[in-house]
Amino acid sequence: MVKIDPKNGHVIGLLDLTPLQTIAYGNNPEIDVTNGIAYDSITGNIFVTGKMWSKIYELEILD
Hints:
Elements: E1 2-4, E2 11-14, H1 18-25, E3 34-39, E4 46-50, E5 57-59
Antiparallel strand pairs: 1-2, 3-4, 4-5
């Protein structure tokens, strides 16, 4: 996942979700790619889920 500065289009942040995918996949071969991302403007946290995932993960992003 990348964070883009809307003023100039430059990438200003990068988050590798590979470790989260590994946790989410577990022993369930039915699930697929990460494809759901939401931002909570009050807490600054990000919610992530994926195709056929049974859970939503709340991520606290530390600068």
